[in-house]
Design brief:
GO terms for molecular function: transmembrane transporter activity. The protein is mainly alpha-helical. It has 18 helices and no strands. The chain has three domains: about 200 residues, Growth Hormone, Chain: A (Up-down Bundle), CATH 1.20.1250; about 55 residues, no CATH class; about 250 residues, Growth Hormone, Chain: A. The protein is about 75% helix and about 0% strand.
């Protein structure tokens, strides 16, 4: 049976550590959790502050909308393509090593973004940032899997998920304050001091862990190339689907080509590769497989809903980025509470209970949002925010535990990469698909809603060309319009936008119900049941 440098099957307190195992600070799993929390916090904060900084980046650097999309997409593509590779490198050569490399590289790339002075530089260094994030992220879970005994691993993952929720929640507020009172570059420079703290603390307390049995194996370079190419093509097709159209040749071609390459990757890994990059035996565990699917669905709903909620709060309701961030705090705070709660419930009842419960809460949140209007009071907003946050936090901790907790310790980094890849692909799909649904619904109802609001038919038909702006919650009201007509245009445009929102949350809610059913029927093993070797 393959061995690892640090074995998690025996609690540290129950037996003396063998001579080759770490002692002192490096023997404490809770200090390992604190150390990886620094890196996790940095990446989570960066992910949500960038969206706040994008408008100012565009103004300062003269960037087009397409350029700003690539500020996000270049990061996402590099991250998605390299996450499983980052986990495999950690498993093979040392999770501590690649976590520290990821932290340092992420910080250097962040500083380079702020100093670049051009939109081309920002896009390029965002891709570099994504690559180093892919080295960092999976090894946070891989390190936890290696040092925590099974009975405590679920709670460790719950705290891990809570840190991710806190950092994401703080992003819009911190980003808004920095952009408003300093400059957009500061949202990237802030990663430097966090990284320094992470590197110093991690150097003192993180133990090294790796799959020692893999040292003599050839590295699966062909698998790396196939997986990266397949994921790049699929994610590229997904992120461009909104712009190109989901039935366009470019979108279907990119996604189709990516799927074919991923099928080839799966066949190669299962039949040819002597030391596969992603061992297909992992998917024999139903909890791990379904946990991967539910992780993708969880972030499909979360990131898709958050995207149009921020459009609603800022463009329809007129709140500033900071004000909008404060109003979504119930969602983030509920997620913070739900993460350790979900871990505790998973430990007691298993993911077959907590995953369906979390998805059901998200479904309730989506269906309640069907009652939102353009002028809804905040009293109608915060209850679904809380339900969504509780559901997301519960699913995040239970599905992460189901994926990483059911993988052998030797594959902890790969399992962490698999979880993070599912998260990123699901989030990309959610944002693109739900926004596309809003755009489609706006296009079919805008003229009718403008006419119903009192806009003359010929003027309404002309304003129909502004459907892209309306799909972002922006009412097309030229300054020359009379006040009464301006009011009618705003009313009709906002109602068309809400029609799109209702379509999106209906689809998201139905998917959540289906996810709850799949988890309830398909998950049968409790986390931590995997072999430790």
């Amino acid at each position: 049976m393959p061995s690892v440098d640090i074995h998690s099957s025996t609690p540290a307190a129950s037996v003396a550590a063998p001579p080759d195992q770490p002692r002192g600070l490096r023997a404490n799993p809770w200090l390992t959790l604190i150390a990886v929390a620094f890196g996790l916090f940095m990446v989570g904060l960066d992910g949500s502050v960038v969206s706040i900084a994008n408008p100012e980046i565009g103004r300062d650097l003269g960037a087009s909308t397409a350029d700003l999309q690539w500020v996000t997409n270049s990061y996402l593509l590099a991250l998605a393509a390299a996450l499983i590779l980052g986990g495999k490198l950690g498993d093979r050569f040392g999770r501590r090593t690649f976590y520290l490399v990821g932290v340092a590289g992420f910080a250097v790339a962040s500083v380079a973004i702020g100093l670049s002075g051009s939109i081309t530089g920002v896009i390029a260094f965002r891709a570099v940032q994504g690559f180093f994030g892919a080295l960092l992220m999976p090894n946070t879970l891989g390190l936890l899997r290696a040092v925590f005994p099974p009975r405590k691993f679920g709670m460790a993952v719950g705290i891990w998920a809570m840190v991710s929720s806190v950092s994401t929640a703080l992003g819009p507020i911190v980003g808004g304050l920095l952009v408003q009172h300093v400059d957009w570059e500061s949202v990237f420079f802030i990663n430097a001091p966090i990284a320094v703290a992470a590197l110093v603390f991690s150097a003192l307390v993180l133990p090294q862990s790796r799959n020692t049995a893999a040292r003599g194996e050839r590295f699966d370079l062909a698998g790396v190339v196939l997986l990266a190419a397949g994921l790049l093509a699929v994610v590229f097709g997904v992120v461009k689907g909104e712009t190109w159209g989901w039935t366009s040749g470019g979108t279907l071609g990119a996604i189709g080509a990516g799927v074919l390459v991923l099928v080839a990757f799966g066949l190669y890994e299962s039949r040819v590769a002597a030391a596969p990059l992603l061992p297909t035996r992992l998917f024999r565990n139903p909890a791990l497989t379904i946990g991967t699917v539910i992780t993708a669905l969880n972030f499909f709903v979360l990131l898709g809903v958050i995207f149009f909620v921020m459009l609603y709060l800022q463009n329809v309701r007129g709140f500033s980025p900071v004000e909008a961030g404060v109003r979504t705090l119930p969602l983030s705070l509920a997620s913070v509470v739900a993460s350790p709660l979900g871990a505790a419930l998973t430990e007691r009842f298993g993911p077959r209970f907590t995953m369906p419960l979390g998805m059901a809460l998200q479904a309730v949140a989506c269906f309640v949002m069907l009652g939102w209007a353009a002028d809804s009071s905040y009293a109608l907003m915060w209850p679904p925010f809380i339900a969504l946050g509780l559901g997301v936090g519960m699913v995040m901790s239970s599905s992460s535990d189901a994926i990483v907790g059911n993988a052998p310790v030797r594959d902890g980094g790969v399992a962490g990469g698999l979880q993070a890849t599912a998260l990123q692909v699901g989030g990309a799909l959610g944002t693109s698909v739900l926004v596309s649904l809003i755009g489609s619904r706006v296009g079919s109802t805008l003229t009718g809603e403008l006419t119903s609001a009192g806009v003359p038919a010929d003027a309404a038909a002309g304003l129909g060309e502004a459907k892209d702006a309306v799909a972002m919650g922006v009412a097309p009201v030229p300054d020359a319009l009379p006040a009464q007509l301006r009011t009618a245009v705003v009313e009709g445009s906002h109602q068309a936008f809400m029609n799109g929102v209702h379509t999106s949350v209906l689809v998201a809610g139905v998917l959540c119900v289906l996810g709850a059913l799949v988890a309830a029927v398909g998950v049968r093993r409790a986390p931590g049941a995997a072999a430790e070797g």
